User: Fold these one by one.
Assistant:
Number 1:
Amino acid sequence: MLSYGPASYKVIALDAGHVCENLYLACEGIGCGTCAIAAYDQEYMDLLLGIDGDEEFTIYIAPVGKVRG
Ligand SMILES: Cc1cc2nc3c(=O)[nH]c(=O)nc-3n(C[C@H](O)[C@H](O)[C@H](O)COP(=O)(O)O)c2cc1C
């Protein structure tokens, strides 16, 4: 298995940004909107997603919804 070692933290942040940017672009294409959120309840989000908060944890949230009008 490929491991990035200590650089993993940097790559995770870069990837999360890329994914979210693509979500913004995809939303535009289907008449929806999204909003990047970093200030969320860590324990609650991890619980909601069924992840342990140790090996896996939430790092970013972006809800998607239809744009009115
Ligand atoms: C990485 C990142 C994290 C963000 N986290 C939050 C957040 O936790 N709370 C918040 O109100 N806005 C957050 N924002 C900003 C919102 O996504 C949004 O850009 C801002 O609310 C302005 O929205 P508007 O242009 O529709 O008014 C974040 C933006 C980025 C890029």
Note: Residues 8-29 form the longest helix (22 residues).
Number 2:
Amino acid sequence: MRIAHITDIHVERRPELGQLGNKRLAGALNLYVLGRHNHFTAAAQGALVEAVMAAKPDLVLCTGDLTATATEAEFVAAAALMEPIRTRFDWLAIPGNHDVYTGESVGRFAQHFGALAPVRVERRGTWDVVLVDVCHPDWLSRGWLGSGGVSALETVLSTGEAPVLLALHYPLRGRDGARHGPATRACIDAEAIEAACVKNPRVKMVVHGHEHHGYRVEIPREGGGAPIASIDPGAGGYAFLPEKKRTAHFCVYTLGEAELEGVERFAFDGERFVSEAGGAFASGG
Ligand SMILES: [Fe+2]
Ligand SMILES: [Fe+2]
């Protein structure tokens, strides 16, 4: 089974003045006054969709931040962008913190991209894809599953024998292998989520987004044994800025019956996505 993993597309549409309440005003300042909107481009986003289609995966998995400030206009544009993928391929998605940017935006993600639950299991082939939604509107851009959600995750993981790919928006670990931070833009209960994973041999890999420069780290397993592969492809909508060592990426995972067999990472070269020279993450971020 081959899974294309995309994340952090960040489709932007300049908000109307009347939509600039509270947090979105800060976000709009960041995007349109401080120039962050140049970080994501339609060229990369369009090429991403073409490259995913060409990869012909069995499943497309999106780990959130499809939009920038979760306005209706951005969701409509993001849904139109993803439509060729969603009409041809199996599709699973969870929101990112940008997709639930403000209280009034909650519900839009589900309306445009599918139902949500804190913990959801989707069987694909011999694998259980466990989708964990930790995103909520929050001034400090923090995520959390909560104690009830962590219990639900533990119950899910203790049920059945299938290998597990766990997907969430926020990293559990940073690129240095330490706990992901700073706390203001991280998942508050990453440690509890990770604890549920490392004690369960079913969990083979964790995939996420949120950090726009991708990386792979290995999470050590309690009591030894093969570590859990933790992978962030990097932002799929990132502008091509080679002088800043910045471009868009996505990954294709090859899953055997019970193990992750291969990771291929694709990078945007300004025109199209090409397989990363030297193997996945050989380029660094
Ligand atoms: Fe993002
Ligand atoms: Fe994010």
Note: The two ends are 26 Å apart (CA to CA).
